[in-house]
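Input record, target 12 of the design panel.
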């Protein structure tokens, strides 16, 4: 099992001639051509392991278009918050409250996305710019909407009805993309298992990852997709209704239009209530695969919302003599309402997480003492706000030419004032991040100096010490240790984001359209600083959006960049879409069933034994697949992990699923488990468990580099391997041979390349399955 970044089957197996055994172009198992029919020729393979490689990198970074999934970053981060809950008992009543709060928070992100699309298409374009002759001048693509031409589309209501197609297409595209990936990823069903396969594991050591329905979320994603699509469409409908109500108020109102508007508003409220009920009742069912079909009312809800939107568009486009667009579009305060509601949900989530943490067994290594979920949820809201505000600010700057939106001489009022306040606090947030980074750099220097004196003692005293070599090794160890300090960075950013976000909302409510008016009576320096912060923050918000788009475009053309972006998704999209259906799909819902089916069917057919080897993220997939095996198959499998983030990252940030009790239960029902790690590895680390017979699972820390200085055997300086090339260490072959011998006594250890290669870069190999 390779890790992040992926590699080819040829490099994994160390042979240019490989043959596909099972799978497809997306994910498959391969063998060397000489070993393809090993089971049919047992005499030719007597006493030696048969190597097999599972390639899964195309699940995350195989298609260049997937780089555009960077735009879905807030949804992915919100989905992670669902899985970061503390390790309280599964039947604790606060568990359901926690899950519900995360689902509601995810729903607000969809509403925020739809509102941002409406801000750009309806407010800035159709209402403000198209309704102002000065703004329309020089824009031929808007000339036919100029109210001075008295054309059919020049009335405000018809302009808005036409512009509503843009946010509708955005929501429709996300819904289509979710359905497409839902069919491709969530469709891999787990193999059948006998009930009670974990009967020998104590209740407190069981984890949800061992449940049969954990990696089968088709129905849940479908229900959430219907609810979020409906919420996005209803957001567009609400904007059109608000504009129509304002127009009716300015023209004296029309009885028929007013009554019709209230009836349509009632329909929107009714559909919104139905959407909330679906989100409320859509909780994960993991005990068994949920393959039931949703009720017709759930599947029809998005279509009903589109139908109501069509009626509202007709109502909005109805002729209203004397109607004109002036000022910003009604509903600008909705952005403040969304921000406040998100803040309330995050605080409620923090309280719930605190309750769950008190009910859980106290693990001092749990990230942020169980507050990782609320902190990450707050960051998801912040990223969503930056993306929506950045798009609106950048588009407004482009529409008004050389003027500044919202100023007295500007042709259009610009986006809501809250977005300007949010832009103003971004420089302060980046300053805090810079301070944290500076403190991290100082920590690296201090740790490096402390470690320098211990490095020569790790090697043969006959090797002459080299000050520069020692400093380089010590620096690598110090930088690798920064991973353990990541909770401090997340906590600092989350705390500052909460304070500055609350200040931005309060400032937006207390000031007029331009934030500069809040400091009009202050000293010139203060006034200039406020304007500078707003201008700089606006550009930074816009730059963030442009950077994401540029990265996606570069990844489409550059394979190496596509692999880099794929590494980001390898960590973020391991978990199923339990909170937000528009998040990037979970590749593990395809990879884990693949591995489980392969191991279960092979051991049953040939009564074989397996050494399942995984590097980096591949070790997480390997552990998840072993959890899914029935008890008999699991007892025939040994696990070899190296460069593994199972405890260092997943155990700390996802304690309910990878905490010490869960990892202890995993080892209890396996034949054996060994883990290799290094001090220089920034990702992998020890498992920190002891076997029941007193042996430790961890083997390490391994020496890195293998040789300190130049010797007759190593005339050139040995490379510092860090996170890669674990199979280059002699300990790797020794541990692999020990596992093979433990599975099948009498089979001599086999020299040669590893059983299944795994690498973050081409050329790495790793141990995989062995049969005897």
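The sequence produced for target 12 reads:
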């Amino acid at each position: 099992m390779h890790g992040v970044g992926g590699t080819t089957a040829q490099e994994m197996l160390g042979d240019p001639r490989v043959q596909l055994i099972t799978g497809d172009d997306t994910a498959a198992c391969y063998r060397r051509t000489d070993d393809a029919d090993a089971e049919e020729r047992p005499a030719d393979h007597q006493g030696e392991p048969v190597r097999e490689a599972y390639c899964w990198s195309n699940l995350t970074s195989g298609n260049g278009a997937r780089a555009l999934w960077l735009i879905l970053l807030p949804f992915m981060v919100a989905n992670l918050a669902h899985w970061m809950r503390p390790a309280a008992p599964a039947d604790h009543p606060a568990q359901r409250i926690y899950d519900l709060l995360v689902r509601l928070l995810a729903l607000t992100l969809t509403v925020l996305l739809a509102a941002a699309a409406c801000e750009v298409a309806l407010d800035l374009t159709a209402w403000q710019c198209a309704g102002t002759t000065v703004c329309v001048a020089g824009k031929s693509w808007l000339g036919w909407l100029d109210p001075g031409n008295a054309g059919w589309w020049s009335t405000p209501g018809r302009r808005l009805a036409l512009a509503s197609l843009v946010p509708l297409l955005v929501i429709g595209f996300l819904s289509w993309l979710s359905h497409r990936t839902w069919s491709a990823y969530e469709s891999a069903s787990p193999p059948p298992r006998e009930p009670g396969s974990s009967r020998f594991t104590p209740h407190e050591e069981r984890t949800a990852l061992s449940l049969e329905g954990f990696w089968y979320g088709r129905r849940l994603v479908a229900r959430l997709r219907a609810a979020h699509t409906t919420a996005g469409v209803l957001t567009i409908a609400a904007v059109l209704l608000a504009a129509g109500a304002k127009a009716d108020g300015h023209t004296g109102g029309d009885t028929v239009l007013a009554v019709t508007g209230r009836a349509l508003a009632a329909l929107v409220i009714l559909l919104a209530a139905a959407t909330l009920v679906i989100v409320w009742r859509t909780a994960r069912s993991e005990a068994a695969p949920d393959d039931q079909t949703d009720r017709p009312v759930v599947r029809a809800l998005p279509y009903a919302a589109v139908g109501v939107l069509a009626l509202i568009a007709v109502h909005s486009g109805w002729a209203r003599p004397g109607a004109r667009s002036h000022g910003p579009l009604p509903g600008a305060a909705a952005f403040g309402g969304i921000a406040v509601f998100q803040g309330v949900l995050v605080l409620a989530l923090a309280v719930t997480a605190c309750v769950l943490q008190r009910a859980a067994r106290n693990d001092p290594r749990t990230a942020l003492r169980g507050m990782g979920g609320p902190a990450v949820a707050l960051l998801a809201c912040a990223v969503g706000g930056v993306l929506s505000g950045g798009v609106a600010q950048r588009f407004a700057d482009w529409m008004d030419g050389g003027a500044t939106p919202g100023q007295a001489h500007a042709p259009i009022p610009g986006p809501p004032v809250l977005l300007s306040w949010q832009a103003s606090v971004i420089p302060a947030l980046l300053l805090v991040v810079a301070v944290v980074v500076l403190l991290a750099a100082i920590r690296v220097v201090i740790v490096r100096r402390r470690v320098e004196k211990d490095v020569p003692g790790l090697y043969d005293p006959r090797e002459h010490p080299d000050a520069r070599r020692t400093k380089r090794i010590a620096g690598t160890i110090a930088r690798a240790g920064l991973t353990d300090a990541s909770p401090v960075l997340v906590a600092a950013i989350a705390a500052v984001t909460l304070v500055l976000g609350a200040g931005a909302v309060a400032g937006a409510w207390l000031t007029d359209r331009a934030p500069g008016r809040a400091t009009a009576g202050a000293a010139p320096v203060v006034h200039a600083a406020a304007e500078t912060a707003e201008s700089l923050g606006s550009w930074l918000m816009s730059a963030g959006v442009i950077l994401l788009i540029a990265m996606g475009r570069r990844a489409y053309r550059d394979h190496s960049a596509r692999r880099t972006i794929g590494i980001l998704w390898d960590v973020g999209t391991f978990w199923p879409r339990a909170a937000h259906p528009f998040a990037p799909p979970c590749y593990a819902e395809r990879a884990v069933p693949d591995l489980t089916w392969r191991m279960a069917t092979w051991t049953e057919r040939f009564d074989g034994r397996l050494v399942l080897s995984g590097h980096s993220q591949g070790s997480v997939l390997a552990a998840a697949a072993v959890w899914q095996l029935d008890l008999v198959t699991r007892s025939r499998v040994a696990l070899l992990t190296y460069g593994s983030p199972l405890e260092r990252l997943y155990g700390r940030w996802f304690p309910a699923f990878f905490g010490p009790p869960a990892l202890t239960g995993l080892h209890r029902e396996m034949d054996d488990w060994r883990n290799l790690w290094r001090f220089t590895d920034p990702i992998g680390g020890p498992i920190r468990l002891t076997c029941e017979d007193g042996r430790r699972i961890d083997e390490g820390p391994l020496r890195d580099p293998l040789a300190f200085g130049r010797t007759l055997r190593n005339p050139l300086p040995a490379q510092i391997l860090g996170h890669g090339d674990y199979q280059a260490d002699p300990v790797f072959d020794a541990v692999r041979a020990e596992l093979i011998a433990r599975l099948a006594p009498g089979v001599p250890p086999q020299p040669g390349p590893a059983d299944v290669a795994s690498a973050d870069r081409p050329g790495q190999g790793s141990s995989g399955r062995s049969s005897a």
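Strands lie at 18-23, 28-32, 52-55, 610-615, 637-642, 672-678, 698-702.
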